Amino acid sequence: MFRNFLTTSDKLTTAPGLFMITLSSIALGAAFGGYLPLISLWLETLGISFQKIGIVSGMAALGIVSSAYFAPHLVARYGNILVINIGLCLAALMMVALRFTESILLWLVIRFIAGLGLGLHWVLSEAWLTRIASDKGRTRVMALYATAIGLGFAAGPGIIWIFGFETTTPFFVIAILPLIGALPIFALRKHEPEITFCGGGSPLLLIRRAPTVAMACVVAGGADLALITLVPVIVARTPEAASILTLAIVPAMAIGNVILQYPIAILADRFGLRRIGMIIATIGLALCSMIPFFLTSAIAALLLAFLGAGLVYGLYSIGLAMLSKRFTGGEIIAANAGFVIIFELSNLIGPTLAGVLLDVNMQLGLPIFLVSVGLFYLLVSWLRRNANPN
After folding, report:
1. Which residues contact 390 (CB under 8 A, 6 or more apart)?
2. To pair with 112 at 20 to 30 A between CA atoms, which of 13, 14, 54, 129?
3. How far is the C-alpha of 252 from the C-alpha of 301, rounded, in Å?
4. Is 96 in the same domain as 229?
5. Could you give the 3-state DSSP secondary structure of residue 104?
């Protein structure tokens, strides 16, 4: 019944794919969510410095950016399913290989290749969804996809709680997840959409033709990751902060990301993508900016984190829905590749800029960063409010 609902033409999508891609994305999200803390914890047991751990972890982002650039070329030659599944198998192999070497040079190469493999799934599955989604259900399709990723990401660390991080077992367990994610994609081999090649992925295409979409990606990528990585540090360095926040504030953000995506999509379908995007950006970033001022109250801080982060990440779904309206045919893969590149670059730059401001003032640094990013997004969106989509 659920599958029939998802594939009915007057509902969410006009072609098979959403159900299987959603299942695959849950597995991909779990692989991301479990592997990132796993390698950091294992490298720490080897006495590796925080700086080197950060470099090793960050190499995956470069691999994802590279995958976004090359994905259109590869899919034009070999097709979606083959490229996605080869990427997932390659990522699974690299996840295990990391555990069996202690060479930092090899770690960097392995992390880059793993990011490349996982990135191919990310870029091509999103492009696939934007191509098959119906006009009426496009935003909800993107919201379901983002929710699936969020569910997997939240569940991934459970593997570490069960198996620990010092043995090889969790590496093998997490490496199975991309292989599981390949099965639903393979099941779609008779429903693969035809792709017309329109050049490689470039963020310049997106920035030039859809700047509001690009800015939504910047906010979702930069602000959301800055919150997840830096708010726990602010809590740890604030003596009067409620002790429970150390463990609870990031899960509160993750739960907000999962629960609020679909309600935001329903509102966007009813009242318009641009209008709802501006509203959730304003409210979400304002709520997140208040977190450092309410750390003495666990309830207030957790509520702000839940609502604020959930609203901010809603811009990811809004951006994808706007992208699929602006680009058609083979352009979707190139545009979505640009979307992923901007997202990953925002992941790298956003927390860095926020960290610099926090070094200047620990209470005001994060709010200044969030408000600045939000004002820039609102300005771009307002200036483009009457833009011709063509």
Report:
1. none
2. 129
3. 9
4. no
5. helix
